[in-house]
Structures are given as structure tokens and as C-alpha cells.
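Notes from hallway chat w/ T.B., transcribed later so I don't forget. T.B. wanted the structure written out for a chain they're using in a teaching module, and asked if we could keep both sequence and C-alpha cells in one place. Agreed to drop them here.
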Amino acid sequence: MTQRRKSTGPALAAALALLAASGASAQDAPSPAKFSTFIYQGDDGGPASPAGTYRNPVMAGFYPDPATTRVGEDYYLVTSTFSYFPGIPVLHSRDLVNWTQIGNAIDRPDQLDFGTLGLSRGVFAPTIEHHDGLFYILNTCVDCGGNFLITARDPAGPWSDPVWLPELEGGIDPSLFFDGEGQGWIMNNGPPEGEPEYEGHRAIWIQKFDTETQKTFGPRTLLVNGGVDFSTKPIWIEGPSLILKDGWYYLLAAEGGTAEGHSQVALRSRRPDGPFVANPDNPILTQRGLPMDRERPITSAGHADLVQTPDGDWWATFLAVRPYGPDQYNTGRETFLLPVDWSGEWPVITRPGEVIPEVLARPRLPEPTQPVTPTTGAFRVEDSFDAPSLAPTWMMMRNPRETWFDLSSTPGSLSLTPRAVDLGDNANPSFLGRRQQHQNASAETVLDWSPSHDGDRAGLVVLQSDDFWYFLAVGEEGGQRRMELRRRAGPSEAADGVLLASAPLIQGDTPVRLKITARGALYDFDYDATGQGWSRLMGDADGTILSTRTAGGFVGAVFGVHARSAH
């Protein structure tokens, strides 16, 4: 599938307007780096997906911790973005398979301050709920304020400034539930009573919520201590949600940590504040314990959220990963979709030993509308930068504090101001990225720019965090224009990376095509400075440095464009 994006939503418009008002002058800035197109494409093969079926993941790439709600025949989904800005994408679907991003809940620089946080801090595991005409997103800004809620009448935004929830101090993963009488409740992961008895010992708590004051009130009640079987020392019970079905309140939560031991468990009670009894057949979703050498493995499944269709069917969105090596994946934690079997008294997403299928029958919902920007399967997307604002899928590292990009000064180009801020500075460099959504993928752009000083660079990046990335750049050294490939493979290497390869370029302002190709654990870096075809600067570079196993954290790799100045 090939898609050429001609129009964009209002993402980042609020940020641009606010920052433009600060009085930053383009006349004072270095010569901007102009990117006239950006092409992403990927294809991971796999079984065919005939008519009447869909393919997992439904949201490929770094879309972790999905939460879903239904309003009439419309479904809305949010995921984590940590310290990327804009944050918390809001997506819409009518069929649970094809999702279109309609905005970002955190799209104003003054809503939250990510400061110099690591990319895997910031906003964790949002949840979304709708009640009495108002949408709620609950979330935790880790190391940047704590637990909060934001609201909107329109899920596309604008969303309110945060309302902080101080009584949830020390906790994460808040979620909102309204019981059969309309009373609001907020659940969250928090510390256990007393001192933790082992690493990963957490608890699930609940407290009433007043929609008028937007505050919690009354006693905080412990629902789950440690996990479903405390004698086994279960770890990281988190991501709680409640469902009312057939007179029972079902509490669903992730357990086991967000790696290969991840799972989803269920408990139930006649009251939202317990006491809860665990499902004797937990977990209701997991891939742990399956053969590690199975073909095209999907692992680390958990953090599920259940939604019911108008016809009464139940479906679960959840996170899982697709490794190319032993617990090695660069695409991050992705959003998957499976039907829920509720033929018995308890929900079942996977049975013991069951492998998550890549292709299965679609939900019984209206015929799909193909999104402008696909999120699943093989696809190609071209951004021609000819719209008034960036597509909502573009992200930067942390909040912007000045205006350093625009789409209007050179129509049909994205212009970046080179600044003395590097990818490894834990700051807000002149960098815009979009997710790597396939193990086998490429990103390509055309750069029209010449450096002014030694050390000036602009080009194409694949990045997992401030500490792990590759930068294919046009630069200058000794007064000579050249191609460079720089890498940072950990915090011990320089913030602007180490030089791996270089090649001379003809002098002048000739545009240069740049391309990065991912092949699982290997990456290739190519350029075309003459219009005669690709030249390889380096092939078979180690892509495992971009894997979560090596780089750590909770994010996935992104491809993007970057410009930096030596002064």
C-alpha cells in the first residue's frame, strides 16, 4: 500500500503559535536545513491477510500501553509517549482495526514540562474514559509532576491543562471508572501498605472521584496486594481497569513486568471497592513459557484494555513485541487486538500455550475506512511537507522552548534551524521523528543545505534514545563539505556521536538524498549527491544498539531529520 499525505491535522499548531509569539527571529538564525520530502516504507512479510481478516499488530511500532473507550459506534485509543512531544496520541476507529490519529492530548508546551528527562520518563500508560459528554484522560507524568487528569469535549482537542491528583502520590497508571450508580472511581498502581517485601512488590488501590470538583475523596482502599497469588511474590501489578458485567465488577491488571514474563490477570467482586477474588485460571493473556525458537514470535503480551461493541462482542487491545533476536526488538512495544471469549464466568484472551495469531477474523463492525497514514501491514507513506502544519505522527524530544522548524518559509519543505543542541544532550534538539514500524523498513529524505562552519551537520537519523542512535549527515570538516555517519552507542560516547565513516561531497548547494534501511539487526546508510544513484557510506551496521535490550527504557526506534550547529 502506498499513501501520499497531502493534508495534515492541527498537530503542533498550538505549539507553533505559542512559540512564534515569543519573538524569535529567523534573521538571527543560521541557514536552515530544508527537507523537501520524507518517505517511510516497511514490509515484514508474514501470512496473507485475505478479505474479512485483519493483521496484528493493528498499531505497529512504538504504541505501548493502549487504552480504549467506545462512544456510540466510535472507538478512541491512547498510548504512552513518555518524554516525546507532542504527547499522548489520540486515535479514532470505527472497526477497532484501522486507526487514524486525530490529535495529541499534550500539544502545548506549557501543559507538562519534560525538562531534561530521559526519553523513557514523562507520560506513562494513559487511560481514556467518556462520561456525560466529557472525555477524560488520566495519566502519570513520571518525574514531572505525578498523577493528573485532563478533559475535552472533543477527543481531537483541545485538552485542558492538567488537574493534579495528589492523593495518588507514589503511584502510576491511574484509570477512571463509573459504577452502575454513576459514582466515579479512580484506581492506580501504588506502593503496598508498609515496606515492600521484595523487588517489584506493588499494589492496586481505589478511591472515589467527584466529577464536579475533579478531586478524589474518601478512603483509599487496597484492592490487590502484590498480585493474584502473594505466595509466589508476583511483581509489578499495574495498569488496572474495571468492567461491570452481569452484576460483577471485574478488575483487570497487568502482572509480571513489561518484558517476556508479562501477563494480564483478572479478579472480581460484587462491589467496585472489593473484596476481590482472583480468577482460578489466571493469567487471561500471556506468551510466557512458549518455545523461544517458534517462528515469527510475539512476546511480552499484557497491559490489556477491554471494550464491548454495540452487538455485545468483547475485544482487547494490549501491548506485545515482535523480536528479531533473543528479546531484541527496535520497534518498541506495539498495540495488538484480540477477541475476548466470555462464554464462561471469566474473560479469556489467550488460553495456556496459545500463540497470538498474526491474522484472524475481523470484528463484526462497519466496513473499514482506510486511514490516510496506515498503521499495520506493509505500507509506504510520503510526506511532501506541503500542508500548513505537521502531521500528528511527528514528534520531537521534549518540549520546545523556541521556534526552530517551519513549513511556510519554503513551501513544500520542512525547514530546521541548526542549533548547538545535540541528540545526546538530553534536551530539545532540532529533531523531528516518526516511528520505525517494521523490522524491515527504510526512511528516505532530500536535504537542500550547505554547512557554514566546521561541525555543522544536518541529515537523517535513526534513534532509540539520547544515548543510542545513528546520524547520516551532510557536514563540514576542514572547510570541506562531506557525508558523515556518526553513532552514539551509550552515554560514554560523545553527545554528538563518534565518526564511523565519511566521504567527500562536491562543493555547493546540490541537494543530497539520504536513506537509512533497517533489516532486523542490521542497518544500511546510503546517499546520492549526484542524481546518479545510491552510494553506500556503511552497510551492516549494528542495529542491536537500538533494541530495548541494549538501550533500555520503554520506547522504540524512530526515524527523523536533524540539524545541529557547532556554534
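Follow-up for T.B.: The chain has two helices and 39 strands. Might be a good example for the class.
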